[in-house]
């Protein structure tokens, strides 16, 4: 009896598909190399670069050694939005830590907005964790199960650090809901149209 009768052809087909997919992806990345943002090309790897922009408390822009700008969403955390309480302070805290500095980007995935989602390190410092530990961001439970980040958030709450100095801070995912009353204008956002049946 031939033990390779079924598994061997399946193995060959799988290896061919992997080789073809890798070649196709590498080709796509090469064609995007000269564009401003090629976050589609950065996945499941580590890159280094200089932080050239801070969008908010959990989003940055990094210029890599290949002169490519990558928009990066810090993995596992969610900082207040720009117009939300503590939004500007969270942005400033992140800027003070890493703006203009060389960081290591450990890529986790690409999100639905085509941003690279990653852990950011400044030498041995884990910046994502620091933002939570200092009270400038929440653990993003929808995308994180890290016990380390969870413990950092609990300690920041207990010490009333950063946004936890507020009596009842609103998580960004609640703030982003379209019918939520926003503190800066006090009005509910209404849908553009109403469907009646």
Could you walk me through the main structural features you see in this protein, from its secondary elements to its overall organization?
This protein has 197 residues and is α+β, with helices and mostly antiparallel strands. The chain contains five helices and eight strands, in the order αββββαβββαβαα. The chain has a domain of 132 residues: OB fold (Dihydrolipoamide Acetyltransferase, E2P) (Beta Barrel). It has a five-stranded mixed β-barrel with strand order 1-2-3-6-5. The chain has a two-stranded antiparallel ribbon with strand order 4-8. The longest helix is centred in the N-terminal third of the chain and has 26 residues.
Topology:
Blueprint: H1 7-32, E1 46-56, E2 59-64, E3 69-74, E4 77-78, H2 87-98, E5 102-110, E6 116-122, E7 125-126, H3 127-133, E8 138-139, H4 147-158, H5 172-175
Parallel strand pairs: 3-6
Antiparallel strand pairs: 1-2, 1-5, 2-3, 4-8, 5-6, 6-7
Helix pairs in contact: 3-4
Architecture per CATH nomenclature, i.e. the level-2 architecture of the domain at 34-165: Beta Barrel
Count the beta strands: 8
Q: Major sheet, described briefly?
A: 5 strands, mixed, barrel
Order of helices and strands: HEEEEHEEEHEHH
User: How many H/I helices?
Assistant: 5
Question: What class do helices, strands and sheet pairing give?
Answer: alpha+beta
CATH fold topology of the domain at 34-165 = OB fold (Dihydrolipoamide Acetyltransferase, E2P)
- How would you state the average pLDDT, rounded? 79
**Rounded Rg:** 21 Å
- What is the CATH first-level class name of the domain at 34-165? Mainly Beta
Q: Which blocks of ≥5 consecutive residues have pLDDT under 50?
A: 13-43, 191-195
Strand order of the largest sheet: 1-2-3-6-5
Instruction: Name the overall outline.
Output: globular
Ends: how far apart? 66 Å
């Amino acid at each position: 009896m031939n033990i390779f009768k079924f598994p061997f052809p399946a193995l060959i087909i799988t290896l061919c598909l992997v080789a073809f997919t890798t070649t196709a992806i590498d080709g796509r990345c090469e064609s995007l190399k000269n564009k401003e943002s090629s976050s589609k090309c950065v996945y499941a790897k580590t890159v280094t670069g200089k932080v050239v922009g801070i969008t908010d408390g959990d989003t940055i822009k990094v210029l890599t050694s290949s002169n490519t700008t990558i928009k990066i969403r810090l993995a596992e955390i969610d900082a207040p939005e720009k117009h939300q309480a503590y939004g500007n302070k969270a942005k400033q805290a992140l800027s003070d830590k890493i703006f203009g500095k060389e960081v290591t980007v450990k890529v986790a995935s690409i999100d639905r907005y085509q941003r690279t989602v990653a852990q950011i390190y400044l030498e041995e410092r884990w910046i994502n964790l620091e933002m939570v530990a200092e009270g400038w961001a929440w653990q993003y439970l929808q995308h994180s199960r890290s016990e380390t980040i969870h413990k950092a958030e609990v300690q920041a709450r207990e010490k009333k650090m950063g946004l936890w100095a507020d009596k009842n801070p609103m998580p960004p995912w609640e703030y982003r809901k379209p019918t939520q009353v926003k503190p800066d204008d006090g009005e509910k956002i209404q849908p553009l149209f109403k469907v009646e049946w």
